[in-house]
Amino acid sequence: MVSIESIQKAYIDYVLTEGGQPKSVYIFAKKNKISEEEFYNFFGSFDAIEQNIWKGFAVKTISEIKSQEVWSQYSAREKALSFFYSFFELLKGSRSFVVYSVKKQPKSFSTPKVFQGIKDIFEIFCNDLITEGIESNELSERKFFTNRYKDALWVQLIFVMNFWINDNTAGFEKTDEAIEKGINVTFDLFQRSPIDNLFEYGKFLAKNGGLKEQMGFGSN
Questions:
Q1: What is the pLDDT of residues 86-98, one digit of tens each?
Q2: In this prediction, what percent of the chain has a pLDDT beyond 70?
Q3: Cα(18)–Cα(20) distance, rounded to whole angstroms?
Q4: Do 115 and 47 touch, CB atoms closer than 8 A?
Q5: Rounded to an integer, what distance in angstroms lies between the CA atom of residue 8 and that of residue 12?
Q6: Domain housing 85
Q7: Rounded Cα distance, 118 and 61, in Å
Q8: How many folded domains does the chain comprise?
């Protein structure tokens, strides 16, 4: 029976065996004994298959980590770490496909089309944990910057993915280290710092007579 899963599995097998996408849907369908109509019932293109596979990685990871009993007790930082560790643990089972898919993407500052699905899911996940972090005062809310926190985490995910692809250590130990250090540094930047206190103090003085008057420099 033709299904999303069966087409994805057949596609992964094809690209890893042949080193690239089929030249046409006709060739792919014939090789897998399905009709073109059956293929198009599920996907509009080969890139759409890859996009759905990547999206599936994120959906499965989020579902698994949220099902853990300790999930509700985690801080925003711990939730991010949980996602990263679980995501790359999941990718181990599809490493050959991940390496193929990532390496064939054009070098660009924009997000490749096949990654748009996973990016959308990941950003929703990040927005939720960032909101929780701000409400619990774990994270600092900064005008113009708070809505960029999710972008910083996306950049971190792409960085670790490329690091993982080139990691030759046993059990990808260096990747685990890169996750820990990267997420901790990123969340340190999200948290309140002395600079935030300085800005808050400046805003307070501006609203209450200004620094010049408070220091007595405005008197005659």
A1: 999 999 999 999 9
A2: 86
A3: 6
A4: no
A5: 6
A6: 69-202
A7: 11
A8: 1
Residue 11 lies in a domain: no
Place of tokens 């309140």: 192
Alpha-carbon torsion 159, 164, 167, 169, what sign?
Answer: positive
Q: Are 118 and 55 in contact (CB under 8 A)?
A: yes
Q: How confident is the model over 132-150, as pLDDT tens digits?
A: 999 999 998 887 788 899 9
Q: Which residue do the tokens 């949220």 mark? A: 66
Residue 153 in any domain: the answer is yes
Is residue 117 situated within a structural domain? yes
Residue 40 lies in a domain: no
CATH number at residue 192: 1.10.357
pTM equals 0.86
Q: Kindly state the DSSP code that residue 208 receives in the 8-state scheme.
A: T
Burial class (CB in 10 A: 0-12, 13-18, 19+), 140: middle
